[in-house]
Amino acid sequence: MFKRTIAVAMSVVGLIVGAGFSSGQEVLQYFVAFGKMGIWGAVIVAVLMSAAGMIVLQLGSYFQADEHAGVLRTIGTKTVSWILDIGIVFTLFSVGFVMLAGGGSNLNQQFGIPSWVGSAILLVLVLAAGMLDADRVSTVIGAITPFIVVALVGAAIWAYTHTDGSLSSLEPLTQNVDTNLPNWWISALNYAGLVLMVNVAMAIVIGGSHLYPREAGLGGLVGGIIFGVLLIISTLSLFLKIKTVQGSDLPMLTLVDHIHPALGVIMSLIIYGMIFNTCLGLFYSLGRRLTARHPEKFRIVFTVVTVIGFAVSFFGFKTLLSSVYPIMGYVGFVLIALLFIAWFRGRTAMHDEGGRRQEARELAERKLDPNVRFTSKQARRLRHLIGDSNLDDDELRKLIRDDVTSYTKTDEAPEPEEIDEPDAKDSAGEGTSAGGDTGSGSTVSSTPVK
């Protein structure tokens, strides 16, 4: 469980820390621009995103979602869910082309490469990775994350030991940072809404690729905490080096360049990787949503919308970020409220379902172990658990069978429909095993939640 939780957390961080955050541009506009109070704004966002990460991934896992619309329909009225769906689709595309523009700006600032070339390289990488399934996309996103964590922490340590002055003396300079937000607390709430709007679709898909809500939720919580810590230390870093980074399209890259040019090259590549992460997550989840009724057309639609995003990206990274992002953040207010309410109302059902799936997995593991007897009583218990699940019976049988076989490496796995059948040698209704009558000490509610 620990390994899978950490894998989920790294995927969440990799998804959230995109072009705007890793480059420092979001941090500058949303937090540093408001001086000392902006630091408190970063703290508020850290708390909100830790909770939101847990909630979104738990919901995705509970519904085994492969796109976000189905989850939205359960948390609000038909009209509200439709409006949010349209808002998220618009956000996915809008921020997607902002990411493509960010890739071009990154390589242009560091290597002098024309912006369109950097964006074109990113386009090819995203199109190639987008051909993978959701689980592999999640793995790709998570694999790059540790590098940005190390880079941001390293840059923060240097900034804290080489400040441009005290916070009080530097505060007047922060007023020169361009921002479209009126004050620090609106900015903080707007940013939390923005982050959720941008990432909720792919986060739901990541949650849906994990069978156990508790595991997915814990990964989302840990990922949100890591993101929150990175946000706070990045805000302090850029605040303390405001003289150095003010006016830069990519302030964090400028900061690292001042440490050493070689580190700037490395940081540029890391930021490019994080831009790739977010861009991939956005266009992948957009493609999944647009082809929800025709999944066989996913690759074609994914390719078309990504290429269109590339064409729009020529408007420029900084301009797009400052004009598009605040609008998304305000819509995100509503989404945050609905998600928190939905989780609060459904937390008992999700807890029970998590226990139900875990117990079903333990029983299925006995079924697949040739050295352990799987009795009629255990088979009945497994059928009972599957019947009480919110998922379709056949779907859950297949998910459990696949989950067990992926870890046990069993060569002779039964068909999904046979997963809850007793061993042939066991007498109908009478067999018991030395390990107990269910093979599990779990106790879960048998109340249907369909």
TrEMBL record:
Residue ranges of the TM segments: 38-59, 80-101, 113-132, 139-160, 184-206, 218-242, 262-286, 298-317, 323-344
Biased composition, class Low complexity, residue ranges: 440-450
Recorded superkingdom: Bacteria
InterPro entries in the record: YkvI-like (IPR038728)
Keywords: Membrane, Transmembrane, Transmembrane helix
Keyword Lipid metabolism applies: no
Region feature (Disordered): 405-450
Extent of the signal sequence: none
Keyword Transmembrane: yes
UniProt name for this protein: Membrane protein YkvI
Organism the protein comes from: Corynebacterium pseudokroppenstedtii
